[in-house]
Write the structure tokens for this entry.
Amino acid sequence: MHPPSLPDRSIEAYATVTGTDRLERLRELAEILSDVRILHVNSTASGGGVAELLRSIVPVCNDLDVDTDWLVMDADDDFFEVTKAVHNGLQGDSEPLTDEMKATYREVTVANATEIDGEYDLVLAHDPQPLGMLERLEERLPDAPIVWRCHVDLTDPVAEYLAFVSEYTDPIDHAIVSRSAYAAIDAPETSIVYPSIDPVTAKNRSLDRTELAAERDHLDPLLFDAPVVSQVSRFDPWKDQFGTLEAYRAAKSAVPDLQLALAGGMAGDDPEGLELYEQVADEAVDDPNVHVLTDLPDMTINALQRLSDVVVQKSLREGFGLVVSEALWKRTPVVGSTVGGIPLQVEDGRNGYLVDPDDAVGAGDRIVDLLEDDERRRSFGDNAREHVREQFLLPRQLVDLLEIFVDALELDT
């Protein structure tokens, strides 16, 4: 286990983007938790939504004087091959689960659990990777509630994989999921908490004209004097970059100069990423208006989402899909699929459009609808910004999270 490096973050930085009542509530909860020490555990420090959330949540909690640590598992590619199979199985698609895979999972999780020697009042484990650590942590910290935060889509899990992870869930005192449909794990209590974006990070903060122009240059050879549609996602089969390519091709028949940017990174715990990136790049190689981009800096992603005319998120399964809120926050309408947390973010006909996950032609039609109506795009963008401000910014998620901590620790309020 190792602690990742963290940025400085102050709760005061959010005063311009969220209401004072919400910030005051955070301070009240932090005061209640002032004598508590909390540990977050996950499997990677970079490249995925969980790591991105923790990179903001942990320093803000410490700024509020809620003593919070974050430890990342030490594991090799064999373990991540197994946990990627578990992730896929929990989302409805799987390879056979072998005894060797189970043994690898147990060996790595137990080894990591033995490395935690600090004293904590509450442990929050994220996703399936650290579940195998919980029995050991329960033995060593018998008075500390264990909270499990599930970020994946559990609406249709493969029974074999659900049974496998359920072998490790007995120590859980409180589960947190992003939608009620994901409550597939038995726990004494389950809460629904929407994830959030951090509006003060390089990826989401406002950019002035000089910054935007500089980042635009970094996106060459994209030409922003012609229409641009983009998708920002990890290179993962569930994100369906191939379906987005199909939607782009359908839209291009009506908008001949349309360009597509498929931008994504490689999560540290996802061994499929590079292979899928190469497949997508190969599929797009013959079209000079399709640009497959990887590992762009956060400021460049910020600019791409702002400069795009439409953002697409055509996922087949989606734990939540915060890239949707990232685009909406920047007043860019989104065409998304009706899976996971996307319909919570995209209000169909108000800040974007929803299509069935296998309807690439329908997605293309909706892209065209937006590209051909400048006033609609502006109106959708204004609606999008306010929807995210109310529902999907970090201070709201922190209030929900700290309220769960207070409840789990049975502290007086």
